[in-house]
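Subgroup meeting minutes
Present: P.N., E.W., G.H.
Scribe: E.W.

1. P.N. recapped why we're keeping a running log of single-chain structure predictions: easier to compare across weeks, and new members can see raw inputs and outputs side by side.
2. G.H. added today's entry (317 aa).
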Amino acid sequence: MVSAILAVSSAPRSGRAKPECAVSRQPLHIVFTMTCEAVSSSRVPYGPKAWEQSARAIEGFSNHLLAAGYPPTLFVDPWSAEEHSPLLEELAERGVDLGVYVHPPALSNGMYKRNLGQYGAEEQHAMFEVSVERVRSALEVAPRSFRAGNYSANDDTFRLAFEHGFRQGSVSHPGRHLPQEGAEWSGAETDAHYVDPQDRLRAGTMPFLEVPVTTDPDRLHRRGMPFDLTIEGGVFEQWHRPLAEARLGRMEERGVAFRTLCITTLNRFAYHDKDSKESGTLGKLVAYLDGLAGEYELVPATLADAHERYLRLPQRP
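Output recorded in log:
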């Protein structure tokens, strides 16, 4: 079971043959993620209304992407890990990466009321221990990928995540400016990078690969919130496509060595229903990405896959 989740592929797992081009194409790593919240409560207002809704969302999202050749990464809340263990174990065997979602208000009955980045190192250490142990016990795995609730982190978070066994994550949300939630990502690195254990905004040398959610940090759609590749965020033609194209253009201009698009969603949308808005947007995103194969070497990747590819760079950024 552990090997199924932690195994990384040495080649793109796209499930489709791409025509060879005379000109070498730049690899583009496509990372789909889902945050798997506990069911909705006063402490977790954005979770699914019921566990059945959550299971359908997780299974529908994963099935769609696996069929299209894009293995996703799921960040699983401890309650979700315990409730959905048979489903998650089956998905792991099919190539899905199971990570841990750490959101303090969901961990206990009102003991923690704030977000992860609003706590000091000692308290965060305790939260990591509880979250990792519960997920490990429920799924019999040693999870290596991590995300924090509401993208909340401070300058202790990456170091503590590494100390608790995590080796990659999608924690940052460049341009997000919500200090009241402990989510301050103004000026953060926008490309995949190793982290600085003392400064969450900077690249560094600690071998934890951070793959930020793809955002446009210079454009806000509401106060403190940049446009991002959240599936439910808006209409594909007006929201996702312009953002993706702008990000690809900036990576080209800067000559970024390790290029990624990181897309995300939540486990409360009807991905099992092909007629739902979110399923339609997901289908359009996949079709758009497939259409980039003439310009890029598409590399569908879980976070663990992406880290393995990053390790093979001749000179890591």
